[in-house]
Amino acid sequence: MILRFPEFSRDMRRGDEAAVDSLLAETDRVAVRRVAALRRSGRIAGETVLPWQGEIVGYYALAGMEAPEGCLCLAALAIAPDWQGAGHGRRLIGMLSEWARLSGRSVVARGPGAFLERAGFVPMEGAGLYVAGPAPEASALVFPPDMAPRA
Fold first, then answer.
1. Structural domains in the chain?
2. Phi and psi of 60, rounded to 5°?
3. By the 8 A CB rule, do 77 and 48 touch?
């Protein structure tokens, strides 16, 4: 196994969209449509990439929740298949978790609990969701369209 280390994560820049969409298509086809819809609606709150030698090998997107105001949700996460299993996703989301804690912003996520917990998220009581930063009341959460947890 050859160890490779990506560059520092950074905000997505104009011109990165095609590389990000390609990465999403390779790892999560549903996320391609979700991110495109969130971009069109203006609900994307931030997009972060993990670059390496001109490529995008990691990505996450945050979207603003409908409620409570100021709460964010993890809309997409992707790590290139060749880069999976080396801890890059955990570090990327771990930095997001620490940002949420330090800034006092709530970031809600759903997904593999063990992964999210290793990255600093904590389970929300009885909600099947995880949060970094201050925990909002689960009953108050209103996700953006197409992002509501499935029953």
1. 10-140 (3.40.630.30)
2. -145, 155
3. no
Query: 55-64 and 44-52 as β-strands: parallel, antiparallel, unpaired?
Result: antiparallel
Q: What is the DSSP string of 22-57?
A: HHHHHH-HHHHHHHHHHHHHT-EEEEEEEEETTEEE
Nearest to residue 4, comparing CAs of 46, 50, 73? 50
**Ranges of H-type helices in 56-131:** 88-103, 113-118
Residue-wise pLDDT for 15-68, tens only, equals 999 999 999 999 888 889 999 999 999 999 999 999 998 899 999 999 999 999
Q: Are 78 and 31 in contact (CB under 8 A)?
A: yes
